[in-house]
Design a protein that fits this description.
The chain has about 140 residues and is an alpha+beta fold. The protein has a single domain (about 10-135), classed as Alpha-Beta Complex (Nucleoside Triphosphate Pyrophosphohydrolase). Helix content is about 20%, strand content about 35%. The chain has helices at about 45-60, 105-115, 115-125, and strands at about 10-15, 20-25, 35, 35-40, 60, 65-75, 80-85, 90, 100-105, 135. The strands form 3 sheets. Strands 4-1-7-6-10 form a 5-stranded mixed beta sheet, with helices on both faces. The protein has a 3-stranded antiparallel beta sheet with strand order 3-2-9. Strands 5-8 form a two-stranded antiparallel sheet. β2 and β3 (about 35) form a beta hairpin. α2 runs antiparallel to α3. It is globular and about 40 Å long. The two termini are about 25 Å apart.
């Protein structure tokens, strides 16, 4: 068994509006566009982390349960991400401590704004196929 550092687990929520657009955030720390999300805290369940991260980054409370649409491994950063298609339950999208900007994006805008590794997560969520997508990337590009 390897003694390398362990993987972390993150969640992301792709909120889809009634026009089929996805809510993207522009992160304050790196300026990248992606779906809201983050790393699970030790005591959290996956749904709790998903709801917390989306609320922190967008001001929107999501309805649970959400639909798992993909599992993604960042081969460089050793992060396994679970991505869910979500429905807004309450709140209005707003920026916060971690979010520079928000935008409802069409499929085409998603591919223009986000790096491939994040765009594919949003597109998979918009497609919401069964079974969920399972993909690997290097942090930017699919591998």
């Amino acid at each position: 068994m390897s003694t390398d550092r362990p993987h972390s687990v993150s969640v992301a929520g792709v909120i889809v509006d009634d026009q089929g657009r996805a809510l993207l955030i522009q992160r304050r720390d790196n300026g990248q566009w992606e779906p809201p999300g983050g790393v699970l805290e030790r005591e959290e369940t996956i749904p709790e982390a998903l709801q917390r991260e989306v609320l922190e980054e967008t001001g929107v409370k999501i309805a649970l349960p959400a639909t798992l649409t993909g599992v993604y491994k960042n081969m460089t950063g050793l992060i396994v991400s679970l991505v869910f298609r979500c429905e807004a339950a309450d709140g209005t999208p707003t920026t916060g401590a971690e979010t520079r900007a928000l935008r409802w994006a069409t499929r085409e805008e998603v591919t223009e704004l986000a790096d491939e590794a994040y765009a594919i997560r949003v597109l998979d969520a918009l497609d919401a196929t069964t079974p969920p997508a399972i993909r690997a990337h290097d942090g930017v590009k699919l591998v």
